[in-house]
Amino acid sequence: MGEPALKLNEQESRFLNKVAEMLPEGGNLNMCLTCGACCSGCPATGLENMDPRKFLRMAALGLDEEVCSTAWVWMCSLCQRCIYVCPMHIDIPALVYEARAAWPREDRPKGILGSCDMAMRNESCSAMGASPEDFQFVVEDVSEEVRENQPGFEDLQAPIDKKGAYFFLNQNSREPVTEPEEMIPLWKVLHMVGADWTYGSAGWGGENYCMFLADDENWKHIVQTSVDKVHELGCKVFLNTE
Amino acid sequence: MASIYQYYAKWIREGKLKVNSDWNKDLKIKFTVQDPCQIIRKSYGEPVADDLRFVVKSLVGEENFVDMAPNRSNNYCCGGGGGFLQSGYADARRQYGKLKLDQILATGADYCIAACHNCHAQIHDLAEHYEADYHTVHLWTLICLSLGVLGEEERTYLGPDLAEYGL
């Protein structure tokens, strides 16, 4: 017998098993039939010479170092189409997510890292770092302009922190920060149907880059900030605007 | 917790949003729609995919709507999700998105409706990068266009065919 082609890690210490322990039904991570349905329907197949099946098989073989260092984990968009088409419903994206989390935080992609850190700057939880005051200023300024210049919308409102409003709306930061006029059609729709709605001064940011960064603690913080605000205002429905 | 697509559909069904597709009867501008993974496959599935199509068809006319293949819960991700847009791997992101680009082009649509921000940014970027001919619009733009209340400054993503329509 010659040298083994692969030096495999001890079974119990493997990355795959550690992730399986965190997931309901172990994420079915040990159920792969190697059929390839996942990779044939995955737009990330071939990038970095990787694909979902290969990634899972490498993890199953205990090639933990390779699995936890390939940049491919940042090219998988966690879209879950692989789970959808998989006959065994294997949670490959959860494996990708934990491989992201295995990267030292400072080595993760700067753009994602920066967007997460921006969201931590203030209560808005906006990936572009817009403060509650900035947000309030833009919303008031733009809505005032509509009331003054657009006939039929003299009564248009875009409330922030309106207690007891039925809907709590989130808002992607790109609008208030870079293209505020794109908020107007949304407000008009809400106005025309007579919706009782509000934004929150806290937790209004519609994006969560800490989740993409695989930073669990700050991901939770962002969600919690929105949830707390919804409860504080007594809103009934959290309405996702995208 | 709800998606606004569900409410757009509800408000149209209840007659609160009096949209119609008459504006597109003669123009015959073709539209396709992106099913955002987060909303459709990962959260609400087919019922909201149905709502989304009901809204789109109400706005543009059934005969002017062309679905991508595959679609709904089986749709391909555009490549803007999961943080990809901010990851710094722009070449890989556009290579990934080539599948989406080809899907859109195969419909022959003049517009791709992308009601999710990640999708909107990515699909818009794909058209610019690959010099494709389609435009990328939000749903709210078309709702207000159909209602005749879309303001002058609210038309950034419309093509020249609709840039001044209804002003």
Which features does this protein show?
heterodimer; A: about 240 residues; mainly alpha; 12 helices; elongated; B: about 170 residues; Rossmann fold; three-stranded parallel beta sheet; 6 helices; 4 strands
Describe the structure.
The complex is a heterodimer of chains A (242) and B (167). With 242 residues, chain A is mostly helical. Chain A folds into two domains: 11-103, no CATH class; 110-239, no CATH class. Chain A contains twelve helices and three strands. In chain A, strands 2-1-3 form a three-stranded parallel beta sheet, with no helix packed on it. The longest helix of chain A is centred in the middle third of the chain and has 18 residues, at 132-149. The mean pLDDT of chain A is 96. With 167 residues, chain B is mostly helical. Chain B has a single domain (14-154), classed as Rossmann fold (3-Layer(aba) Sandwich). Chain B contains six helices and four strands; from the N terminus they run E-H-E-H-H-H-E-H-E-H. Chain B has helices spanning 4-13, 40-44, 46-60, 90-107, 117-129, 139-147, and strands spanning 2-3, 31-33, 111-113, 135-137. Chain B has a three-stranded parallel beta sheet, with helices on both faces. In chain B, helix 5 (117-129) links the parallel strand 3 and strand 4. In chain B, helix 1 (4-13) packs across helix 3.
